[in-house]
Write the structure tokens for this entry.
Amino acid sequence: MSAPEAKGGVAVLASGEGTNLQALIDAAARDGLSRIELVVSDRGEAQALVRARTAGIPAIHLSPANWSTRAAYDQALADLLAERGIALVVLAGFMRILDADVVRRFAGRMLNIHPSLLPRHRGLRTHRRALEAGDRLHGSTVHFVVPELDAGPAILQYRIAIQPWDTLTGLAERVRHGEHFIYPLAVRWWLQGRLSCTDGQAHLDGKPLVAPLVATRDMAPIPG
Ligand code: GAR
């Protein structure tokens, strides 16, 4: 699907600290384009809700405890996004696996950031797994969301070399630093109508992204 709905707003779904949300809020303030109209969290204590309210963005705690099934919760979430006219759904540390029907409803309009170089290390504990596997490279991937977990077409990766002295927390911090650069960039591309997903293939500026674009520590090679 292309991105003709770029008139609609952006919703960010987040479960935790919300540093990626903050990067998106800051980018929106700079470019005036990536406006965030709604933040939703499944966790009432999420710092992301505080960040949203501080920025004057409507922030909703949608507690899974109020729905009897996972599918019903996901449906309510999707209905809320649709009611608010949300064009693009941005998952930023939203630690739930969404129902396949909901993912299909937002096909080509839902992005995720995952802290590994996909397809390596899908799922949880990615930094630990990268260290334990002795990986030389690690990082984070922005991708379109499809029903299969962390398997959607990759758009953009931030890559760093794992150093012998890297600790779990240090590595996680270095990866997150890069996420704060690549995620706003991908969101902006989508809102500009440059980024789309058709038949399971991501496209940037009309060209298929056969492999994700790569940002490294010096952040040079990305068109912007
Ligand atoms: C980010 O590192 C993001 O890649 C990861 O959660 C963190 C959220 O940080 N997402 C996942 O693990 C999703 N599978 P933040 O709340 O500070 O933005």
The chain has six helices and eleven strands.
